[in-house]
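The methods section describes the discrete structure representation at length, but only in general terms. What matters is that the chain and its backbone geometry are given together, residue for residue. For illustration, here is how one protein appears when written out as sequence plus structure tokens:
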Amino acid sequence: MNEVDLVLVGGGGAGSLLLAALDRHDVRGLRIAVVDPVRKRGQDRTWAFWGRPDADLDPMLSASWQRVEVTTSAGRRLLDLAPLRYAMVRSAPVYERAAEAERRLGVTRIDAPVGALDDDGATVTVRDDDGRTLLRAGWVLDSRPRPPRRPGRTSWLQHFRGWWLESATPVFDPGRAVLMDFRTPQPARGVSFGYVLPVSDRYALVEYTEFSPELLGDAGYDAGLRGYADLLGLDLAALTVREVENGVIPMTDAPFDGRPSPRVVRLGTAGGATRPSTGFTFAAMHRQADEVARALAAGRAPVPRPAYPRRHLWMDAVALRALDRGAVGGPEFFDRLFDRNPAERVLRFLDGATSPAEDLAVMRSSPLLSMTSAVLGDAAGRLRARLRPAPGDLRG
């Protein structure tokens, strides 16, 4: 098959959710191909997100919680998320659902890396790393990681390591998750916290996370995890580490190009699905997949809406600047959000689902003097970027 209607480049989380959505919306009659050198399967990562109960996602969940904790050195806050819930899905059921959708949709698989995507406005030629033609397609949906269109004014990373811990006796509370525990030692430039996602009273994911510009070494992540386990009162000698998870997610105000050419559409982080202020991605990937599938089922172009409103991306840029310049402390910033707003409003804000009036309420709950300084600094940075000569401009 040299010509198809739709090519999915990349079979990870975004590609898998899209295959499931195409099947769910009964998109039939299209010639579809997936091009990826690796066939994803098994438990290679965990996603956490919040939302309402969902008939599509619920069968794939490992656990969900109506109550979560946010903890600082000043105390513990127990939040009721109703009508939302915090949920965890592991990769294996997502990949299995995608494989089932592939079979039902009659998808062609090509196990090869993709090099160039040559878009002439009518079709896209998909080439391998050596420039050989793999396919020609009407549309390409590309979920591979890609750098932003230009560097951001603030570029941080969410980076983490988690241990899946198993105990012979009950040690975890499966009725609540720890969303953010800021009792961890804070880095000189950045934010650190731990969290706990319990599947049962004897099995949980315990993770150490940093929001900061630089990665740690293995020893740093392990030290962070051991220290957090001590804070939780866990005896690691009595626990078994069943799995280890690592991850790095961009947190930046840099723009990602969701449509780099007329018939190439990017999904996932490269398509703007990662929220700059938190690194959360899964809910936006799921929305993108649903919108693309609905469009194809209706005979429209498979182009999803921006993952987040522009005003939210601006607010994220300001928050990142304030954190990066030390104008506000991370624990203080997030604690005030949850202290002065209903938890459901904060979570909907972080999902890009709040109204302008609710956004103002969220902004008022932040440290106003520090954030005003960050707003002015962000505006100055934007102006400098506009006035900066383009590369090669001799006037510069």
